[in-house]
Amino acid sequence: MRRDLALAFCLCLATPAVADVAETVTDHILPGYARFSDSAAALGAAAQADCRPAALRGPWNAAFDGWMGVSHLRLGPVEEQGRALAIAYWPDPKATGARQLVGVLAAADPALLEPGAMAEASVALRGLFGLERVLYGPDYAEGSYACGLARALAGDLANTAGAVAAGWGTPGGGGYADALLAAGAAGNASFLDAREARQALFTQLITGLDFIADQRLGRPLGSFDRPQPARAETLLSGRPLRNVALSLAALREMAQTLAPEAAATQAALGRAITLAEKLPDPTLAGVADPSGWLKVEILQQAVHAARDTAVAEIGAALGVGLGFNAADGD
Q1: Gene3D superfamilies from the xrefs (predicted)?
Q2: I need a labelling partner for 190 at 20 to 30 A (CA). Which of 4, 134, 274, 309 fits?
């Protein structure tokens, strides 16, 4: 018995202190969704005032920044009614969204511009990427169909972002936040105990890092012999590397709330962020050159290293392993 107690005590000393679920919900998830919802609402309002590309690119970038703060969270209200895909349909390997936009502009159907109609359209047409194609394509005049389409897309995005934030609610308000905060409570079918809640959040952290390494960096990297710079995220707007840096920063914040003394994880994430911020290749087009490819691969390796460090350090601190994430099926 004394040996077991001593071993447990040593393990406690070796394991980072855990802030756990409540801090992650109140200090990371809820503020992140509030910022995204606010920025999407601001974009929707800006589109109503002036729907030309020059007026909307700034608000659109602010909304995309907001999404980078929560894009790794694939549980709860964002997974209901296909909202995550309606916000950001990417990767889109068959260019479905681009083809649909061409068809929509050619048809110029006024019914699609009616209030609420965009919510029934294909997710490939909608969201941040639908707006990127409109705002960074050919310029158009006030009063044109493309201008009205920008308004409809921005309004739809604002509604979707607002619905996600409302679905999370506030602590004690009966939303999805309470399902995590009251894990194990009677009647809570989402999380049967506190460990399930910890595992769900830990899975968001790790799969978020996987997505950065495998998709945001892996897709343009391709292979050394066949790089694929045209497959980078948000290439039209020139922000592929910005997405990497912002999403890494959001995941570092999440890791801090889950395990505030996980020093090795924070250091590994900090190294990856520094590499991203110092890489002089905002569109990741440099992967077409061997030296540029190697620089992006070094960043990818740093993200993989941060992921592995978090699995070992934070997983042990929380007493959990990886679970299923909705992004696993993408």
Answers
A1: M75 peptidase, HXXE motif
A2: 309
